[in-house]
Amino acid sequence: MNADVAAVLSTATGKILRCSERFALVPRPPGFVPGLGYLVSYWKNLRDYFLAVKDNRTYRACVVTAAANDRSPIEIASMGI
Predict the structure, then answer these.
(1) Distance between CA atoms of 49 and 23, rounded to whole angstroms?
(2) Distance between the two ends of the chain, CA-based, in angstroms?
């Protein structure tokens, strides 16, 4: 671990957090045609989600993408290139 690796890891972690924040905004399909009641309920659930766990939630898709995109830069940084 050197300063360059730490910098790349810090950038990758930031990407994961931003991705997860955006991913949380994507509506989940209800499996049926939603009515007004469902949409109101969904909005309340979304609001509660952000109030309770917005800082602690990461999505696997975000982690895997960051790992794939930042693998080479981390390896290069660890070699001191």
Answers:
(1) 12
(2) 13
Q: Which of 52, 70, 78, 54 lies closest to 15 in space, CA to CA? A: 70
Q: Are 77 and 39 in contact (CB under 8 A)?
A: no
Closest Cα to residue 65, out of 33, 30, 19? 19
Residue of 74, 66, 69 whose CA lies nearest to 16: 66
pTM of the model: 0.62
Distance CA 73, CA 58 (A): 22
Query: Residue 31's closest CA among 44, 42, 22, 43?
Result: 42
| Each residue's pLDDT tens digit, 17-53 | 888 888 877 776 666 666 777 767 777 777 766 665 5
Question: Rounded to an integer, what distance in angstroms lies between the CA atom of residue 19 and that of residue 69?
Answer: 13
